[in-house]
Input
Amino acid sequence: MFTLHYQEDSTMFPFHKNPSKASYPALKDVACSDAFTHRRIFGTRKSRKYPFIRWLKPSGFLDFRCNTKGTWVLADALYWFFYIPLTALIVIALVTIPTSILRATVQPVELDASIMGERLAQKITAYSPVLGAQSGRLGDITAANLALSEKRHAYRITVGDKSAEQSVVGNQDFYDEAIPLTPIKHKRFTFTTTMIQKKSTEERIVPVTIDQVYPERYG
Amino acid sequence: MLFRSLNKKGSTEDIVLHPLFVIGVAIGIVLLVLLQSVYKIGSSEEFEKRFVATDAALFVDSVYAVRPDVALLVEYPTGKFQGIVSANKVTAFSKTKEDGQSFFFTEDSAYTFHYGSWLAGKPLNLYKSGNDIGLGDILRLKPYCPPSTKTYDFVINEFAVRTGEDWASDRNGKPAIKGTITQGKPVLKIFTSKENEPLACQVTQSLVEQIPELNFVILPLDQKQEPTLSIELTASNPVLAQSYVYTALSRGLHDVSIS
Output
């Protein structure tokens, strides 16, 4: 059994002393701090049922009216503290979103990767002036040595299984830097097929992988 | 029901619908502003230039992707902008190059790219013929000669090209190239062994460039046959063709040896 001991003073209201017997004080009868406590403890019927409505309008957000000037300043400060950053956020979004959407339309990374994949496949296809291009037959993979531009792009062509693997890399530095960061920062496109490889008199089917890495968007 | 409920103080609809309406209006305004911005940028000239430059650069990349033994000439409509195709880059602009937008393409050392420009309202014509890619209206089938490290130590006998003896021999005096030149419709037949394919290709390329409307074919030769390169050329002017052959052999041997 607890007994609460307190010292009475003139600022205390009857319901503090004996809540069961005292009637609820009206807001207009209480001091500012007690009005806030009143709202906080008892709330309103609406706010008890739907707490989010406090956020819907500024007057509902901090709905504790009191006569103290300091409390109004605090309320205003809190209101503007949220209002200004949110407004700034919306304005920035309105400016940047359209630009970024349109830049995305002129960021043909997928198309570029598809074309480059076809080019690299053509480069490693066997060719002779007598027979022309021999589709499906593997030629010299070191021929896939393209003169890369300032565009950030790298590729690696791997031929054969792990026991006898040959590979050629274009833009090695970017490839080594970008591969660990895919798919978070860069886009990776891997194309796998099989081709016929001729070694002396023997012909065999070998797997060929064309692995490309591009930035999320060009600069 | 809806309107009746709005009048009821504290009803659920009143609490939910009013804020929803406000939020809906706010989202509508935001979307309108967003669409207006999209339209503004989408119709801007800078965006169009960027689009043309990007598309043209990818177009160049696509021409590189075509198999090497194909000749083609493609017309690409570029609209109201003019542009320049320079090393690894396409630039589309209105008046000066400085106000333009650029995009990169990837070159290939196996091909020689012939740079150039196109005018506003005119299409960008891109061709591929043998080892040449570039801007122009050329549509000519030439053999594509892959880069080769093979070297030849042949001596060309210019006089023999005219008299019909062995055109070239190796350092030991063994016949290396022989051929005939006759009058008729321009046709070139080159018979070559596997090891002389790069040279045969270079000679063919050179003759195709010099003799108009020359049809050609490169055929395999049995390794045991000698010499390992045999040329049969029919031309409307055989005397002129002799000098073309000499030039072609000289260029062919030089190009193959230095590549």
Remarks:
- Chain A is about 40% helix and 25% strand.
- Confidence is low (pLDDT under 50) at residues 1-6, 55-65 of chain A.
- The beta strands of chain A are 125-128, 132-138, 146-147, 154-159, 166-170, 186-199, 202-215.
- The two ends of chain A are 73 Å apart (CA to CA).
